[in-house]
Design a protein that fits this description.
With about 170 residues, the chain is α+β, with helices and mostly antiparallel strands. It is built from 4 helices and 10 strands. The chain has a single domain, classed as 3-Layer(aba) Sandwich (Aminopeptidase), CATH 3.40.630.30. Helix 1 packs across helix 2.
């Protein structure tokens, strides 16, 4: 089965991804009717989730909103990528806890990186929580380098946490 994905009027053919347990997954464009499902994933996966309003604003914007679906068409992940001038900025990426550890985050990040390249971006930028070792390791394995720290960037249940700012050149 081949899926098609439309971004800004451009169609790209997407082959289904196969994770380690042979579950097929597909990328799709974020749609307003996905708001409740995305918000529920956010609540299930983050101690201090984005509000429904923030997610709604991201869907309405010119950001690249991408969902990851399983073979039953259930949303198991999502991301928001902002591209402007020559920069690609990953605003949020999430793979549901129950689906992690299968290489889906790696495939998702590769897809987003290629989306940035397609949009002629030269730099890929992201922030990651200091405490998120798994994500930091993923980003470093992709060639991202630490370029700074945003103090108190993320809310936590007990206060604030720093963000590590990472970038990668897109060639």
């Amino acid at each position: 089965m081949i899926s098609f994905l439309v971004f800004s009027g451009i169609i790209s053919q997407i082959q289904p991804l196969v994770s380690l347990n042979m579950t097929k997954v597909f990328f799709d464009k974020m749609k307003p009717e996905y708001l409740d499902q995305i918000h529920q994933l956010e609540i299930n996966n983050y101690p201090v989730p984005w509000s429904k309003g923030i997610i709604k604003d991201c869907i309405r914007s010119d950001y690249h909103g991408v969902v990851l679906k399983n073979s039953q068409q259930s949303i198991i992940g999502y991301a928001f990528l902002m591209t402007a001038c020559d920069e690609s900025h990953l605003l949020n990426m999430c793979v549901d806890k129950g689906q992690q550890g299968q290489g889906l985050g790696r495939k998702f990040l590769r897809y987003l990186e290629n989306l940035g390249k397609y949009n002629r971006c030269k730099v890929f930028l992201l922030e990651v929580r200091e405490s998120n070792t798994v994500a930091k390791n993923l980003y470093q394995s992709f060639g991202f380098e630490v370029v700074g720290i945003r103090k108190g960037y993320y809310k936590t249940l007990t206060g604030r946490e720093n963000a590590i700012v990472m970038t990668k050149a897109l060639l």
